[in-house]
Design a protein that fits this description.
Length: 201
Amino acid sequence: MIMYGASGHGKVILEILESNNDTDIQVWDDAVKPDIWEYPVRQPLPPGAEMPGKMVISIGVNATRKKVAIRFQDSVEFGTAIHADAYLSKRAIVGEGTVIMAGVRVNPDVKIGKHCIINTSASIDHDCELEDYVHISPNATLSGNVTVGEGTHIGSGAAVIQGIKIGKWCTIGAGAAVIRDIPDFATAVGCPAKIIKIKQQ
């Protein structure tokens, strides 16, 4: 597996791959960075080169992860990284490039898009749908039938009640309690969550 991004987030993904006994891991980064443990950090091969394996993008920033995915979409097969200590329903669907950390629970009929991050001990309940490039932070909870749009970041410890629709490229603050729908490009914080700004498109 190729792991693109040698950051702290990358360290977590390295251990996910190790938890699944992956013995052939390469770490790539555009910047010159020190090795991660026994894994040397290499410069990426250019798009179009023959790739030595599948890739996961170990970059926490959603917009940057999307740019890298587009850069390599025609030249690499994207894999998934699911920690051995995560629970994933056999009736859930997980898109390519997605990473799922330790302690996560993903319940039946959940649909997770491409290149998402479901971070440590997050809970995704039945019938939720997450579009591409979403990041669900540690200990966040999505109740049943929640929809999350492309590129949205749900902060650590946030809770979203059932049936809520959160738009694309939103930011939900840490510890927020989302009890109403959130429009595209909004930032919402607090308990209950209130919109404090909407980004210009």
